[in-house]
Amino acid sequence: MRQSKKILYRTLLCLTAFFSLMLPAFSATGDHPVLIISSYNPDSRQTSDNISNFMEEFQRLGGTCGVELENMNCKSFSESPLWKTRMAGILSKYRDTKEPSLVILIGQEAWAAYLSLEDSVRGDVPVMTALASRNVVLLPEQGADLKTWMPESLDFFADFAGSPIKSGFVYQYDVAANIRMIKRLYPQTEHIAFISDNSYGGVTLQAHVVKEMKKFPELSLILLDGRVNTIYTISDKLHSLPPRTVLLMGTWRVDMNDGYFMRNATYAMMEAAPGLPAFSITSVGIGYWAVGGVVPVYRALGRDMARQAVRVLANPKNSEIEIISCETVMDGKLVKERKLDIASIPGPIRLVNVTPGFYEQYKYHIWGVAAVLVILLTGLLITLYFFYRTKRLKDELEVSEAALREAKDRAEESNRLKSAFLANMSHEIRTPLNAIVGFSDVLSAGDTAIDDQRGYFEIIKANSDLLLRLINDILDVSRLEADRVTLTLEKCDVVQVCMQVTASVTQARRSSNRIVFESAADSLEIRTDIQRLQQVVINLLSNADKFTENGTITLKLEPDMRNRTALFSVSDTGCGIPPEKRKRVFERFEKLNEYAQGTGLGLSICKLIVEKWGGRIWIDSQYTRGARFVFTHPLDL
Predict the structure, then answer these.
(1) Is residue 557 a contact partner of residue 540, using CB atoms and an 8 Å limit?
(2) pLDDT at 599 > cutoff 70
(3) Percent share of the chain, pLDDT over 70
(4) Which CATH architecture has domain 2-171?
(5) Stretch 512-539: mean pLDDT, rounded?
(6) Fewer CB within 10 Å: C terminus or N terminus of the chain?
(7) CB-based contacts of 198, cutoff 8 Å, min separation 6
């Protein structure tokens, strides 16, 4: 119940965050709220997930402030002169008693719009930021030619020392580290072609790259700017790049026509220049195109934001801006194909697109096969134990001269049952074991396609499950016949138990049969071993389902107050049971159809369990539409 409430609660939080992105504002009442201003960039799912995680963690930590959500609805860089006014308009709504206790800026557009405002407009409310870069450009004024406007890249920590933004999380894009990596792997490089799109993030990265490339005067920089290009013109320009050019990826989501593109755009670029070495400073293209890159360690920040917000609200002078560091990521497949020496690259390297070894890829399957073999060996040892125990009893009986004939007859009967038991068990074990051993040999030989390997493992797993069920049934029969099973009695509503079992079998079975439950009473409380009662009913329902096609299987419960018993029956509309075989169906390994799946132990186990609690089980010979099994359970146990 607690788990269901938690899932419902998380769902409501996600829906709240989603609808907050669709509407102008969402309000959780209260004076001096926490004001969240979202850029509403194309990556809305990331934003909504962070907001929902923030609100859940904020409430869990005891946050008492209300929460207000505002969206700037930012799209492409073409509308960037409007963002400053939008930010000022949002802040103007929260004055006097509605003045926020904390402002949280999510996304680069909100971050840049806030930094572009005058101090008098921004006020002195503490501000937190997230999903933004430490490298920023101030927004252009109205009338600026946005296609040719080349802003200066500013560093937040160096150029905005007096900013009220004192907490949050900012990314750091290490252009210099990427250029040094390119020079180590491609020492003949003379040109760097940088791709950026028509978004604020693309313009910011381009300004940052232009500034950082001044540290490498030996390299020329070619800008493939999304403000003046479409995906098609970019692809054409990739064809005409000069020799010894390496491509550096920034972002690409929106082009000069404000058309949004996601991963398919970079695939189109890759097809336009498949042999061009490509690197990434934002992780775009890594895993299918880019050789690698030094990129930020992206992670979900919602819960970290909530914990930091609680600390800031407790002490507004608290200052803690976390710079999210970078990591070196390389495409192992491309590194191998292009024979690149990555040993000279400093620091740890995280490889992607690396095919794991056979053991790492299938270790759980191997452990599963080993476990099955151990279980099989254990079953054989148990069988040998009972075999030698029976033999010892036989020898002891033969010692008694007075009961020599009786002992001899019993020994012969015991020997016959033992031989039949071993013969049946050997036959049942050999079939799945042949499949396990055979396909294991095929896999160990190697040179097998991955798809074939998966198919072989599915066969091994299915036969392993069959072996496990067989051994479980053998253990059940052995323990029940040896009277080593103790019933755990407890009160229960047997009507509810039957309804649950019917629903469970209906869910598990893949046949087209209809399974129904009928009860003469709405509730019937008895003392029983619930697990064993469920085992009997499930075995009977499964057996009926096996021999019925497109029919109806009915579980019926009738209390017999006169005899103080509960009468259970399982009826089907299947093929029925021939009269000559009805007396043998409860014997071990007895199967009506030798080609049907199963071990022939299920009905034998049912009979032993029912007799254990003092009941009876039989086949209703008056029922002619199929087969009907009936068993009883005492009401006073």
Answers:
(1) no
(2) no
(3) 87
(4) 3-Layer(aba) Sandwich (3.40)
(5) 92
(6) N
(7) 76, 77, 78, 226, 227, 254, 255, 256, 258
* Of residues 540, 565, 545, 542, the one with CA closest to residue 616: 565
Distances 313 to 123, 161, 271, 308 between C-alpha atoms, Å: 17, 21, 51, 9
Question: What is the CATH code for 358-481?
Answer: 1.10.287.130
Q: What mean pLDDT is predicted for residues 56-82?
A: 89
Burial 384-418 (b: 16+ CB within 10 A, else e): eeeeeebeeebeebeeeeeeeeebeeebeeeeeeb
In this structure, the number of other CB atoms found within 10 A of the CB of residue 148 comes to 9
DSSP 254: B
| Half-sphere exposure of residue 94: CA atoms within 13 angstroms, side-chain side | 29
Mean pLDDT across 26-31: 49
- Whole-number average pLDDT of the chain: 84
Contact 169, 198 (CB under 8 A): no
- CA distance linking residue 562 with residue 595, whole number of Å: 43
Homologous superfamily of the 175-298+326-352 domain (CATH) = Response regulator (3.40.50.2300)
Between the alpha carbon of residue 545 and those of residues 500, 530, 604, 629, the distances in Å are 17, 22, 18, 13
* Residues ≥6 apart with Cβ < 8 Å to 121: 88, 91
**Are 17 and 36 in contact, with CB atoms under 8 Å apart?**
no
Does residue 119 surpass a pLDDT of 80? no
Alpha carbon 487 to its chain's center: 39
- Look at 568 and 287; give whichever has higher pLDDT: 568
For the chain, give every domain's residue range: 2-171, 175-298+326-352, 358-481, 490-634
Percent of residues in the chain assigned helix, strand, coil, to nearest 5 = 50, 20, 35
Question: b vs e for 308-335, b when ≥16 Cβ sit within 10 Å of the residue's Cβ?
Answer: bbbebbeeeeeeebeebebebbbbbebb
Q: Helix (H, G, I), strand (E, B), or coil: what is residue 65?
A: coil
CATH architecture type of domain 490-634: 2-Layer Sandwich (3.30)
pLDDT > 80? residue 557: yes
Mean pLDDT, residues 280-288 taken together: 91
Query: Could you give the CA distance from residue 572 to residue 515 in angstroms, rounded to a whole number?
Result: 9
Encoded amino acid at 177, one letter: A
Question: Going edge to edge, which strands form the sheet with 565-571?
Answer: 514-519, 552-560, 565-571, 628-634, 617-619
What mean pLDDT do residues 132-161 have? 89
| Residue 322: per-residue pLDDT | 92
Question: Which residues make Cβ contacts (< 8 Å) with residue 403, sequence separation at least 6?
Answer: 397
Helix (H/G/I), strand (E/B), else coil: 154: strand
Asked if the domains at 2-171 and 175-298+326-352 fall in one CATH topology, the answer is: yes
Between helix 83-92 and helix 108-115 the angle, nearest 10°, is: 80
Is the pLDDT confidence value at 600 over 80? Answer: no
Question: What span, in angstroms and rounded, lies between the C-alpha atoms of 305 and 300?
Answer: 10
Alpha helices (H) along 160-314: 175-185, 200-212, 231-239, 263-272, 302-314
- Is-contact 349 195, C-beta < 8 A? no
**Most confident of the ranges 437-451, 500-514, 612-626:** 612-626
Angle between helices 358-399 and 404-445 (to 10 degrees): 170
